[in-house]
Amino acid sequence: MGFSIDRIDHVVLNCRDVEATVAWYQRVLGMAREEFGEDRHNRVDVRRQKFNVRPSGAANWWSVTNDAPGALDLCFITRQPPASVVEHVKACGVEILDGPTQKIGALGPMTSVYCHDPDGNLIEIASYRSESEVAEPAPPGPRPQCGELSSRKPLSVSSPRHRRSKPAQGRRKSWRW
After folding, report:
1. Which end of the chain has fewer surrounding CB within 10 Å, N or C?
2. Whole-model pTM?
3. Which of 124, 131, 133, 136 does the annotation list as catalytic?
4. What are the structural domains of the chain?
């Protein structure tokens, strides 16, 4: 008898400099840092998603044969509207490569903004229209600076809960649960 996959548990980010990579994911994407294991490996987390940060060529960490940094293309989902994403990424001094631009994600149409992390991985920060429409508006006054936390919903990414939602009018569901 076969089996089925429920979800991805974690991704390993091979990098040149663990400190620079972890700092970037904390500062730009709002992820939390944690050390784990007897070798004190680093990871960054967002909600229920884990990203192990591994220095390329690490002898004490079993991994793939080709562990070259910069080979990933990752898409993160945020509830913030694309304009907020652009403003935050620019405030962090990160170059926007493309976007906002319309794409099709796992749950349907979404708006994406692209940039690179310190190792050259392609990072896509996207929002689904229904989620960004309900995001809390920015409070009056000065906008938060890169890395600052505010009382509104964070500019950090979030993984969508696996929930069924009604497809857009005239669209048929094309995903399976």
Report:
1. N
2. 0.73
3. 124
4. 10-56+68-133 (3.10.180.10)
